[in-house]
Amino acid sequence: xxxxxxxxxxxxxxxxxxxxxxxxxxxxxxxxxxxxxxxxxxxxxxxxxxxxxxxxxxxxxxxxxxxxxxxxxxxxxxxxxxxxxxxxxxxxxxxxxxxxxxxxxxxxxxxxxxxxxxxxxxxxxxxxxxxxxxxxxxxxxxxxxxxxxxxxxxxx
Length: 156
Fold this sequence. Notes:
Blueprint: H1 3-19, H2 27-65, H3 70-81, H4 89-93, E1 133-134, E2 137-138
Antiparallel strand pairs: 1-2
Helix pairs in contact: 2-3
């Protein structure tokens, strides 16, 4: 081989090795997280399955005792039977949440009426507002003197 072919081959090899990204985790770290998740699941899975079965039975009893109210039973079933059944390394590292009991988003009741709008000044009208000054007298004051006089309405 000529010298320039060797130089091109060495340059290509150096460029290819320079672009290789280092591994994020070593084999021992992956093995550690895998072992930890396996050991955690020895206790977690039976506990979660027991909770789900008891929630299923409780939801069935609630359905019967409420004369067929499916919404009550579904709330119990969703909370107890939903969630995480197997812990993974991502759960243990905090990258994914662990949901032993599942709490879905709250949806408004169909029969709920909208809340009344807040009342400004606690429902007082302008004439009844304590502490308002009008013509030298304080509206709502207990002073015996009255300095009110009727004024004609302007603009009519």
